[in-house]
Amino acid sequence: MNHDNERSLSIRPEQRRTSSWDMFATWVGANANNGTWYIGGVLAACGFAAAMGVLLFSSALSYLFLSLIGFIGFKTGVSTMGISRASFGIRGSYLPSLINVTQFIGWTAVNTYIAATSVSYLMHDIAGWPLYGQPGGSKGMICGILVMSILHIISIASGSRSVQLIERIGIVLVFIFVLWESVVVFQSVSLHEIMSWHVPAKFKMNTGTAVDTVAAFNLAWVTAGADFTRFTKKKTTATVMPFVGALLGVVWFAFIGLVATISIAVASGGYDPNNSDPSTIASRLGLGILALIVIILTSMTANAVNLLAAGSALSNIFPRLKLKISLWIVAVLATIVTFVPMILGSFLDTFIVFLDYIGMVLGPIISIIVVDFYLRNRGHYHLDDLTKREGRYWYTNGVNWIAVLTWLAGAVIFFGLQHSEFLEKTVGATFITMVLSGVLYYYLMKLSYGGSKKDVN
User: Fold this and answer.
1) Domain ranges of the chain
2) Is residue 8 scored above 70 in pLDDT?
3) DSSP character for 452?
4) Is residue 12 within 8 Å of residue 154, measured between CB atoms?
5) Which residue spans traverse the membrane (predicted)?
């Protein structure tokens, strides 16, 4: 039984077919999308120079963890949530898995909402439907959400292979669209004007807040890293390609969102962070119907990855559930969640609350997994024990309570540090919380399992 379970948990060498190009395209496509564009628009509240500095610093640091998790996936052939069994315990891994399900469903909903806005604009241009926010405008948004949900179900119909196909098509469209928008932006406003623009005082975002915002956006991908790198044959494919692809995607597309948002503020003489979504920007830049269609298609590119990661995490909680069924379940749940901003009345406010949730719960989980593999276990796991009752990863009735308590402490630490005025204006709370969580986990585990068989793996 253990042998069969191990084989299903770990991808065998002959099953690994993902090339360096596929891995690069996956992570560029994951980040070169509507959500990243929107993040760039939100960062405009820092001003151009500060926004670019934060974007580069926070993204590079976040994706260092993506490479670290990516290597674990390559080394073990196990998904990220499967890997978490070693640190949280076989049953304890249900905690990070549940969090991963919720956050990737949330990201799917974010991208779906943005794309649904594009559908609303399309219906306005084609059929004269009122825009969302106008009387009767909800009709276009509801139509958009349902259309996008159907497209997402189609995109995941064949599992991981269809996701790979969507990525290959999507990345080409993304490159064309970004170049097109760049030309339009810099035809109307010069780079000097964009760099010289000053944020209205009432909308100014502090540097530390921006670091946390970008970190939350990027760390969300880290917990999906091994889900994809476990299908790779080479170490560089699993470590370098995710880092380079994800960093290129986020910096490039957030830059476009940033300069597009500022260019509109410069041209119109007014700035409103609520108008940073891609559909509104595309419409105000006069990019036309084709741009809205591309926004819809790039949403499918990002959400193919989101849904696969959510489905993989759900399968860790319910091992007998086939991946394709898991994908259908998370796709339906994401459709329901997409309606939340319409109920609450503000997409931006809902988005910021969602990012705070991600920053609070994901950082400690990533730290625990990384410290456990590289420092506690010296880069080696016993794969057969990842599915074995009473094995070295069973801990106490399947739960490593030290990992769970460290995660809770990390969430509390993040919440406390986030309200520090000094950190809010400087480096933010996310990465400090991750360091503290990692140190706490390492020493608590050393005190509890210092010389036991669970420590000598």
Assistant:
1) 17-225+237-449
2) no
3) S
4) no
5) 37-57, 63-83, 104-124, 136-157, 169-189, 209-228, 240-267, 287-313, 325-348, 354-375, 395-415, 427-444
What are φ and ψ of residue 399, in 5° steps? Answer: -125, 130
Written in H, E and C, the secondary structure of 408-439 is: HHHHHHHHHHCCCHHHHHCCCCHHHHHHHHHH
Distance CA 117, CA 361 (A): 29
8 A C-beta contact, residue 391 and residue 453:
no
350 and 341 Cβ atoms separated by less than 8 Å: yes
Q: What Cα–Cα distance (Å) separates residue 299 from each residue in 24, 104, 111, 112, 395?
A: 18, 14, 6, 7, 41
The answer to whether 381 and 86 have CB atoms below 8 angstroms apart is yes
Q: How would you classify residue 388: left for phi > 0, otherwise alpha for psi between -120 and 50, otherwise beta?
A: beta
Q: How many CB atoms lie within 10 A of CB 203?
A: 13
Question: Are 228 and 23 a contacting pair, CB within 8 Å?
Answer: yes
CA atoms within 13 A on the CB side of 376: 30
CA–CA separation, 355 vs 35, rounded Å?
12
Under 8 Å between Cβ of 390 and 378: no
Closest CA to 413 of 401, 429, 402, 427: 429
Using the 8-state DSSP alphabet, how is residue 18 labeled? B
Whether the CB-CB separation of 389 and 246 falls below 8 Å is answered with no
Angle 238-242-243 from CA coordinates, rounded to 5°: 115
Q: How far apart are CA 180 and CA 177, in angstroms?
A: 5
Using the structure block, give the residue that is written with the tokens 């760049």. 182
Residue 239 identity (one-letter amino acid): T
Calpha distance 446→439 (Å, rounded): 11
What is the token pair recorded at 68?
């670290």
The Cα-based distances of 329 to 91, 95, 259, 261, 326 in angstroms read 21, 19, 38, 36, 5
Name the residue among 348, 385, 71, 403 with its Cα closest to residue 225: 71
CA distance to 116, 160, 347, per residue, from 276 (Å): 15, 32, 11
For residues 437 and 412, the answer to whether their CB atoms sit within 8 Å is no
Q: Rounded to whole angstroms, how far apart are CA atoms 427 and 209?
A: 8
What confidence category does residue 2 fall into, taking pLDDT thresholds of 50, 70 and 90?
A: very low
Q: What is the pTM of this model?
A: 0.85
**Per CATH, which fold does 17-225+237-449 belong to?**
Hydantoin permease (1.10.4160)
pLDDT digits (tens, 9 = 90+) for 72-88: 999 999 989 899 999 99
In DSSP terms, 59 is beta-bridged to none
| Nearest-10 crossing angle of helices 138-155, 160-188 | 130
**C-alpha pair distances (Å), 338 with each of 115, 225, 293:** 11, 24, 19
